[in-house]
Design a protein that fits this description.
This protein has 9 helices and 12 strands. By secondary structure, the chain is α+β, with helices and mostly antiparallel strands. It has one domain. The strands form 3 sheets. A 7-stranded mixed β-sheet has the order 1-2-3-5-6-9-12. Strands 4-8-7 form a 3-stranded antiparallel β-sheet. It has a two-stranded antiparallel sheet with strand order 10-11.
């Protein structure tokens, strides 16, 4: 357990709270530390999973697989374990409601578990303990050297930034010049809750098709506390929830593509007979800069 890391993280909270309340985020949504409050009303449970959700989940699964493989290659003295939820029961399926509510309660009490954990070789840990309850695995998780939250993107980040630069030099009024790390405001509290209990440095890795950019959560909290280099939006893809947008250049490029994926069409048929078609990335891969990755992971 990394006590120094957590002390630094805790030291940003006054600034984070002051900055976000000044930007009209309700203070009650910034209750850092300890268990979350009991909900005052019954949570709304999704009742259907449509093509966009299924496609986004497939993208996320692909990003985790690609990053896990690259980590194992770059860090032969470490082992990577799947820790985040891999339950693939879709909304509307039998058992989904109970699983969804159980996940909400676990997060309220214990925090948001990261997707991947890195351990030293030699420790006896399972390669996948995502299906175990978090309370049963905390003592194992606390032995990790680092944790990673993985996000996918449909963009090629390097292509995006090169094109924005070309447009700017041509005198074209452009929009955002870089893609962003996107962190929902509500996730700050539940990520912090996990870090408070486990004291494991945690990074946020954004997997693009051509590259991987990463930033540590300590640096995310520090950026927010500074009041600079980020904005808050309510994008439709995040269910219009307040989302912090931090330019990826606030982090580091830690990886590059060694092959773009192909795409295969898949579809799911609901109990009512609706066909939802979506595409799934297959193949591809990345090579990581081990030095930069260590810098981000802070070990």
């Amino acid at each position: 357990m990394n006590e120094s890391y957590f002390r630094q993280l805790k030291g940003t909270l006054d600034g984070v709270t002051a900055t976000l309340t000044a930007k009209k985020i309700d203070r009650e949504r910034l209750a850092f530390g300890g268990e979350g409050a009991m909900p005052t009303k019954k949570p709304t449970v999704p009742t259907d999973a449509r093509s966009e959700f299924l496609a986004n989940r497939a993208m996320g699964d692909w990003a985790e697989r690609m990053l896990s493989g690259a980590l194992l290659t770059s860090f032969p003295d470490w082992q990577v374990a799947q820790y985040g939820d891999t339950n693939r029961i879709a909304a509307g399926d039998t058992g989904f409601k109970a699983s969804y509510l159980r996940g909400l309660e676990e997060t309220r009490l214990l925090g948001k578990r990261p997707d991947l954990l890195l351990f030293q070789k030699g420790l006896t840990v399972p390669s996948n303990f995502s299906e175990f309850r978090q309370a049963e695995t905390e003592k194992i998780a606390q032995q990790a050297a680092a944790a990673i939250e993985v996000r996918s993107s449909k963009f090629e980040a390097l292509t995006y930034m090169a094109e924005r630069k070309r447009q700017r030099e041509a005198g074209v009024d452009t929009g955002r010049e870089t893609p962003s790390f996107t962190v929902k405001v509500e996730d700050l509290v539940i990520v912090y809750r996990w870090l408070e209990r486990n004291r494991v440095p945690q990074a946020y890795c954004q997997v693009f098709f051509d590259s991987v950019f990463a930033i540590n959560f300590l640096d995310i909290f520090t950026v927010i506390a500074s009041g600079q280099d980020f904005c808050i939006e309510t994008p439709a893809k995040s269910q219009e929830k307040a989302t912090i947008m931090i330019p990826i250049t606030c982090g580091l490029q830690v990886g590059k593509s060694i092959g773009l994926p192909m795409f295969a069409a898949e579809h799911r048929v609901t109990a009512l007979g609706r066909h939802d078609a979506y595409v799934v990335p297959q193949g591809g891969g990345f090579v990581l800069d081990a030095g930069k990755m260590r810098q981000i992971l802070k070990f």
